[in-house]
Description:
Strand content of chain B: under 5%
Distance between the termini of chain B: 89 Å
Number of strands of chain A: 8
Radius of gyration of chain B: 31 Å
Order of helices and strands of chain B: HHE
Number of helices of chain A: 2
Number of strands of chain B: 1
Largest sheet of chain A: 5 strands, mixed
CATH class of chain A: Mainly Beta
Number of domains of chain A: 1
Largest sheet of chain B: none
Helix content of chain B: 25-40%
Structural class of chain A: alpha+beta
Strand content of chain A: 35-45%
Order of helices and strands of chain A: HEEEHEEEEE
Shape of chain A: globular
Oligomer: heterodimer
Number of helices of chain B: 2
Largest interface: A-B, 58 and 42 residues
Distance between the termini of chain A: 43 Å
Shape of chain B: rod-shaped
Amino acid sequence: MKSLLAALALTTALTLPGIAMARPVTLTTTLNNYGGDGAYLALYVTDASGAYMGSLWMAGTKSKYYEHLTDWYRATGGDTAQVNGITGASVGAGRTLEITLDLADALFDAGYTLHVDAAVEDMRDSPNEVAVPLTTAGVGTAVAGRRYVASFAYDM
Amino acid sequence: MKKTLTILAASTALTAVIGTTAWSAMQGPTDGSARQSAAIFEDAAQALPLILASNDDDEDDRGFRESSRRGHDNDDDDDDRDDDDDDDCRGGAPNPPPAGTVAPPQNGLFGSGAPPQVQVN
């Protein structure tokens, strides 16, 4: 009986921090009026060494175009399983994409960087369109992208 | 009169030539070495590539689409890249299931399996 209680206490102690250590984070991406079709966007995270950790969102549903999200594609090998369940429609010029995700707290202030790759049909691919370090100090700070993204910010 | 006879003779000869050719094509070979004309025509058709008189149907939108054709079927996708459900990419990676249909991947970035909330303004 004692061992059962101890096991329960241990699992609870291990589980609760995991639940508590996540929070909803809203990623807001506003595109320029670049005058083209809807943009494909890949949002993903790398660690302090630049190694790919995982994807947060894929805007664009057709995998055959993912190779134009150059850095994401190189990091993942085009593995669509990386974006299973976190994929939505491409984003039109001048539109704003708001994604709210339940993200692990451990992502912040730990050297991780959030990247956005962008691609638009008949226009130049834009890998690493946005790269922002994930820090609590950076919450709410909008940054501009290189080509298609007018601004990107994350809020908690 | 001579002229009429000449025309008649010529048309008869022409008909005979065409008829003979057609008849021989329909008949089976009398021996193993002969091949039917129809079979020869079929072989020729298979050997010759289809050459388009015009290459106007080439997509000249290089860049986004050009390299995307590898392993695909060159279907006439519309250019808006919205969801038109042409999931006929033989040999290519399958399209990922959209948000809300399956749980996000277990990549350590997500705190729970809650589906993302998305809004486009």
